[in-house]
Design a protein that fits this description.
Blueprint (H helix, E strand, L loop, with lengths): L4 H24 L3 E2 L2 H21 L4 H24 L1 E5 L2 E5 L2 H24 L14 H34 L1
Antiparallel strand pairs: 1-3, 2-3
Helix pairs in contact: 1-4, 2-5, 3-5, 4-5
């Protein structure tokens, strides 16, 4: 195997990149203010991450099945995470603390798979092979479905919590 300077640089920088992404995700998995517009954005963005590939995969049944299965498992994990989430109604506002390990795991699954695709694209450079698309591999679709299903349903759960609070205020 011929190691070029670019390959060596990538081998050295990849762990640094993974660590940086991990730290960014970890920083987001702490106590945070509940902002309804962010929850709507989460529902829309992560639902789109499921719907857009879903439309393209009707002729690729293994990838379609992996996406649907991933979304189902992600939704299930999200229901579990919502039960473990600490919700706070304080005079300063509404706050929630997600279960950090589960959220980090769900995000890093997708990050790891995308990083793998990047390495595959780099390794196939100059070999005349077409670059893999995100929807080509069932494992990739499983990871996308898992992460998107988790965060879409989690965001929807946060919206539901805020609606219940609003309804309780209106009842008073």
């Amino acid at each position: 195997m011929d190691l070029s300077i670019t390959t060596l640089a990538l081998l050295v920088l990849t762990p640094l990149l993974v660590w940086r992404v991990y730290n960014r995700i970890k920083a987001r998995m702490t106590r945070q203010r509940s902002i309804v517009s962010r929850h709507y954005t989460g529902v829309l963005v992560f639902s789109a991450m499921i719907v857009v590939p879903l439309v393209q995969l009707f002729d690729k049944l293994p990838s379609l099945a992996a996406l649907v299965a991933g979304a189902a498992f992600g939704t299930g994990w999200s229901i579990y995470a919502l039960k473990r989430t600490r919700f706070e109604d304080t005079p300063q506002g509404y706050y929630f603390t997600p279960p950090a390990r589960l959220g980090i795991l769900m995000a890093m699954i997708l990050v790891a798979r995308i990083l793998y695709l990047g390495v595959e694209i780099y390794a196939n450079q100059g070999k005349g092979l077409p670059a893999p698309r995100l929807t080509d591999e069932p494992l990739t679709m499983l990871c996308v479905g898992l992460t998107a299903g988790y965060f879409a349903w989690y965001s929807a759960g946060l919206l539901q919590w805020r609606r219940r609070l609003r309804k309780a205020i209106d009842m008073e």
